[in-house]
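Good morning C.,

I know you're traveling, so I'll keep this short. The sequence:
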Amino acid sequence: MPKKERKRLQVVISEEQDALLTRTAYELSSPERLISKSEVVRLAIEKIARELGESEQLDELRTLLDDENVSDDA
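The tokens, ready to paste straight into the viewer:
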């Protein structure tokens, strides 16, 4: 069975955001299964997309992004 093709995305994050990713991965992990930071990011993407489909929280998320001074260097 061929491997599932995946796209790679590179983003720049702050040390604080990296620490949050690390802590979240640790908290989601169990002795049976370690969760990677990449898996946390994929989970977050799915969760945000689902929540946006269920409600109108776009303005709240935009405000959060503006407050964090998030920029995309693409």
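Safe travels,
E.
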